[in-house]
């Protein structure tokens, strides 16, 4: 892969030969602005990051988390861009700047959770489990192809995000570079062999009906394949991943301390090794715990950004050849300290009662919504003798633009189910819960 091509300003959906005329903003700033003003991004304000929203203490939502990841991503991308421009003087001839490279990473990082369903990762499992195990999900298995069934049984927020970013519904038309930097897992769900040594193959990054869109992006940017079924990562995707890793490691710990799940003293002991000689316990005196947490968090993130850019600079050539395929935060000097934070977070935060209760509720809500809508759709188009008045009422709750024509026994229903999953996964936590209560008769409109 060549940087001149990887940083091309072409935009998804533009006709061949189209030349951008934007003068006041770079193409990557346009990406950022379009994302900020999009409805899927706004919906992140009511989607859980880790904790249900408490009454007294501030904790992060998917929205605030995404904004912070984007901020870290911009710093990573700009610093990496300065390194690339000094190493490859020919890049300057393309007009690319370090700020634009930072803009690519910032925009991609802003969207990194845009495909996540309600209730966090529990929501992903709930959607997957519905098709794997629930009778009303299993009914579709014999109507779709094997690769389509693999998509349904393995809901993946990254793939859902790619689907949303290329969808005409939202009209984002992002640059190919931003789309590629977003795509941490450049492979489909069903592959014959997964190379466990390659980080980019840990999950999948697009559903099978977005394969042509992904191939178009990869061809435009000159992204090659690492195997017959998988592609190489765009090198900037490593920075997007690192920005997310840094933020959830440090900030989930901060939220856990704010919620009283991890003591202030233990939080300090976990962050201090990252700061090394910058840590001064004397400065913790005469300030509130909240003030100290903010200062320590900022210092830790700054140190991790520096270490990550150094690692990127060391392995950038190997990334372009497709030989390097690890998380940057796994190889930086502070990796062992991040691992310790993760271990404490899993035990004391992610498995805390308040988080587990939220996850349990999420399973019930999403399974319940999928059940009633899936049953109604299946009865109408694939078992009409069982289509009931209840089914008819349920289908009237679907969005006005939901495609309810053209389906039947001889028609593959995968696109129909995909759109149903789009609808449910795009809900906010609160909307999903309220709709579940109503379709289950637990509450009534206006109550």
TrEMBL record:
The keyword tRNA-binding does not apply. Transmembrane segments: none annotated. PROSITE patterns: HD. One of its GO terms (molecular function) is dGTPase activity. It comes from the Bacteria. GO terms for biological process: dGTP catabolic process. Keywords: Hydrolase. Signal peptide: none annotated. Residues 62-249 form the HD domain. It holds the Pfam family HD_assoc. SUPFAM superfamilies: HD-domain/PDEase-like. This is dGTPase. It comes from Algoriphagus zhangzhouensis.
